[in-house]
Amino acid sequence: MRYLEIKVIDHLDLERAPSNQLSKFWVHLTENGLAQPIYIPVMVAKGSEEGPVLGITAVVHGNELNGLSVIQKIFSKLDISNLKGTLVGVPVVNIPGINNQSRYFNDGDDLNRVMPGKADGTPSQVYAHRLLSRVIYQFDYLIDLHTASFGRVNSYYIRANMRRKVPAKMVYLLNSQIILNTEGADGTLRGAASDLGIHSITVEAGDPNTFQKEMINSSYTGIFNVMAYLKMLDIEVKMPIQEPVYCHSSHWLYADTGGILVVFPQVAQQVCIGERIAVVKDIFGEVIKEYFSPANGIVIGKNVHPICQTGARMLHLGFLP
Q: Three-class SS of residue 295?
C-alpha cells in the first residue's frame, strides 16, 4: 500500500527536507494503549530558493474537516518549481479525534485548550507538546483551519490579533466574510504559536463533519493570496468582490431556559439592537421565552441543534465598530 512507503520520522527537520519537491512524512508523536504509534501526516513543499516557512494545520478538532480538504487541494495545485521558501501542511492534527469522529482527544480533553502542552502531562498535553516541539516551532507563519463544532454552523470568518501588523495583513488576504479581532486564547494552537514568535491566525470555515466546496475554495484562494504577500509565489492576488465585516469583539448569547430552540438569523446576517433572534418552545410547541439582540451586530455562528438545555449557546454575535 502506498502509505506504507511514506517515511516515518520522530522530528520534522526542514533543513534536511529535499528542495524543489513535495515530501510526505508520518511524524511519530505518541503511542496508544496497545503500544501502537500515533503518527500525524505532514506534507512539505520546499522551493529551490530560500524564503519563509508557512505552516497550515487542520483538524485540531476531530470533527472539523473542511481544512483537511483545503490542504490537500493546495498541495495538489502548487507549482513547487516557482516556490520560494517552504510550505508545510498538517492535514490532520488530532488523529484520535478524527478516528473517533469526535471533537476531542481520546482522553476527553479539547486539544485546542491544552496548548502548548507538557512534556510530562496528560495524554493530550504530551501530544500537544510534541506537536509544538517536533513540527510547529519551525514555522514563521501559521494558518490554523477550523470549522464550527457539533450542532452549530459558522460563517467564513477569521480570528486574529488585529493590533499585530502581519497577522492583520494576512487576514485581509483570506477573503473572509467576517474578521474578528481577538488575541490568541490560552491553550489554543494559535496562542501557543504566537508565544513562539510565529505570526498566527485562525480560519473558521463553515460547518463540522462535512466538506463544503464554497468554504474550501475560499480558503484555498485566500491562502494563495497569503503566499503571494509573503513573496513565496509570484502570482496575482485575488481580492474579494465584497469587503469583510470587521468586528472589534464578539459574544455568545446563551439560553436561560431549556426547551426547543429556534434561531432566526442566518450566519453572516446583520441584526439590529432589539431584533427578535430566537425563541425557546416547550414540548407542546408553545413559546416560553423570546430572545432579542442586545446590540447591532453580525451573526458569526449559531446553534442549529433544536434540543436546548438551560445554558446552551444560541448565537455568536459580532459587535460592529
A: coil
Whether the full predicted model's pTM is greater than 0.85, yes or no, is yes
Give pLDDT, residue 4: 62
How many Å apart are CA 264 and CA 236, to the nearest integer?
A: 39
Residues of each domain in the chain carrying CATH 3.40.630.10: 2-229
What residue ranges of the chain are covered by domains with CATH 2.40.50.100? Answer: 248-319
Residue whose grid cell is 520560494 = 84
pLDDT tens-place string over residues 51-76 = 999 999 999 999 999 999 999 999 99
Chain centroid to CA 176: 13
> What is the model's pLDDT at position 239?
84
288 contacts 259 by C-beta, under 8 angstroms: yes
pLDDT band of 2, cuts 50, 70, 90:
low
For residue 196, what pLDDT is reported? Answer: 97
Assigned CATH topology for domain 2-229: Aminopeptidase (3.40.630)
E strand residue ranges, the chain: 7-9, 21-31, 37-46, 49-58, 84-90, 141-146, 152-154, 156-160, 178-181, 199-205, 245-247, 249-254, 259-263, 270-271, 276-281, 287-292, 297-303, 307-308, 313-319
Euclidean distance between the first and the last CA atom of the chain, given in angstroms as a whole number: 55
SS3 109: coil
CATH code for the part of the protein at 248-319: 2.40.50.100
Average pLDDT over the chain reads 96
Q: Which of 31, 30, 26 is nearest to 9 (CA)?
A: 26
Residues for the chain: how many in total? 321
